[in-house]
Write a structure and sequence with these properties.
The chain is an alpha/beta fold. It has twelve helices and 21 strands. Strand 8, helix 6 and strand 9 form a beta-alpha-beta unit. Its EC number is 4.1.1.20.
Length: 415
């Protein structure tokens, strides 16, 4: 459930009519619900009960400062993958002491900045990265807290582009090598081994792959113990899936944790999670206006003003997201492909959708709060959409629509 519901014949975001938002702020427009974001964050937090834990929101899912700030106020941790994301967390008032730094290509300045502000832990993805972080920490006279992101070789049963825990994926350190690499890390003067990390993929709708990965992590932690390497926390990554489609069943954070904690061995560790999608996806919609209808014998197209540059998930993963009218009309529907103005055949938001629409109508693409705006681009020199957050009766613009001047800033012709 989320806070986007029909009331009095039209779609509302919390207490505000979405059509009013679209008229006031233009389209395409991302609309987020504060109450939904907070509720989804609390669902993770509450699922832990008294167990020591840290919810590290995965910033990549939606990195708008206003959203990060909401979570910072709730005391959240953050999972970052770049110096840019670290900067966002700091500007949003996040506690650097609750930041974990994932990602497999950390550059020296990014590592330096992370050490300077005192992040909680580096999730290390290769032996070469271990050497680099040890060297940078050494130069700075610091000790970096680290965990290894291990690749447990389990099939997350999700789209191949967002599966990360198979041995052929670029992520993490092969579980068979992990013990040797931990021994090496433990002997490095500027590293402090504190945890084990893994993240096996995104949009997981079954819990079995998480359990399989966890068993392998727990076994590794026990082997390390016998080597005298004490593991303080287990970071089980993000990846919990959400319902994009009616009838799809997604486990709740409570189901997820209940399942994990069936293994009592887990209780001796502080548990970190890095959820992104499960918190943000169903807390946002993308609102777009129908520009033209193009009907033919073969196919009907609704050409809308949002495109693959605004929301790339359908083009990139053939992802299915629900598309609904903001103010539904009575009467007959027709079947449309909902397409944007970008010059690519893959520029669609949805295919074969039954709708009763006219030019000028607003449509909402649901479940767009995660991997929507953050994956947007300026392709076809299209300025990025405006983002607003609804808080009860109030609409806050949390990122202005980009202007062409913003978009062109920094480009120069030859003298
Ligand atoms: C290391 C890491 N942590 C957390 C996440 C967040 O994943 P999700 O949005 O599926 O929860 C990702 C993205 O898949 C990731 O790569
Ligand atoms: N961007 C992907 C998820 C990738 C998660 C990042 N590791 C999606 O929209 O489904």
């Amino acid at each position: 459930m989320d806070h986007f519901e029909y009331r009095n014949g039209q779609l509302h975001a919390e207490n505000v009519a979405v059509a009013d938002i679209a008229r006031a702020h233009g389209t395409p427009c991302y609309v987020y619900s504060r109450a939904t974001l907070e509720r989804h964050w609390h669902a993770f937090k509450d699922a832990f009960g008294a167990q020591p834990h840290l919810v590290c929101y995965a910033v990549k899912a939606n990195s708008n400062l206003a959203i990060l700030n909401l979570f910072a106020r709730l005391g959240s941790g953050f999972d970052i993958v770049s110096g840019g994301e670290l900067e966002r967390v700091l500007r949003a008032g996040g506690d650097p002491g609750k930041v974990v730094f994932s990602g497999l290509g950390k550059k020296v300045p990014e590592i330096r900045k992370a050490l300077e502000v005192g992040i909680r832990c580096f999730n290390i993805e290769s032996e070469a990265e271990l050497d680099r972080i040890n060297a940078v920490a050494g130069e700075m006279g610091k000790v970096a807290s680290i965990s290894l992101r291990v690749n447990p070789d389990v099939d997350a049963q999700t789209h191949p582009y967002i599966s990360t825990g198979l041995k052929e994926n670029k992520f993490g350190i092969e579980i068979g090598r992990a013990e040797a690499v931990y021994v090496k890390a433990a002997a490095m003067p500027h590293l402090n081994v504190v945890g084990i990390d893994c993240h096996i993929g995104s949009q997981l709708l079954t819990l079995t792959p998480f359990m399989d990965a966890l068993q392998r992590l727990l076994a590794l932690a026990e082997r390390l113990q016998t080597q005298g390497i004490k593991i303080h926390h287990l970071d089980i990554g993000g990846g919990l899936g959400v319902r994009y489609q009616e009838g799809q069943a997604a486990p709740s954070p409570a189901d997820y944790m209940a399942q994990l904690f069936t293994d009592e061995r887990l209780r001796q560790y502080e548990i970190f999670v890095e959820p992104g999608r499960a918190i943000a996806a169903n807390a946002g919609i993308l609102v777009t206006e129908v520009e033209f209808l193009k009907m033919s014998e073969y196919k009907n197209f609704a050409i809308v003003d949002a495109a693959m540059n605004d929301l790339i998930r359908p083009a990139l993963y053939s992802a299915w997201q629900e598309i609904i009218p903001v103010v539904p009309r009575e009467g007959e529907t027709a079947t449309y492909d909902i397409v944007g103005p970008v010059c690519e055949t893959s520029d669609f938001l949805g295919k074969e959708r039954d709708l009763n629409i006219q030019p000028g109508d607003f449509l909402a693409v649901r479940s767009s709060g995660a991997y929507g705006f953050t994956m947007s681009s300026n392709y076809n020199t299209r300025p990025r959409a405006v983002e607003v957050m609804v808080d009860g009766d109030t609409v806050h613009v949390v990122r202005q629509r980009e202007t062409l001047d913003d978009l062109l800033r920094g480009e120069q012709v030859l003298p």
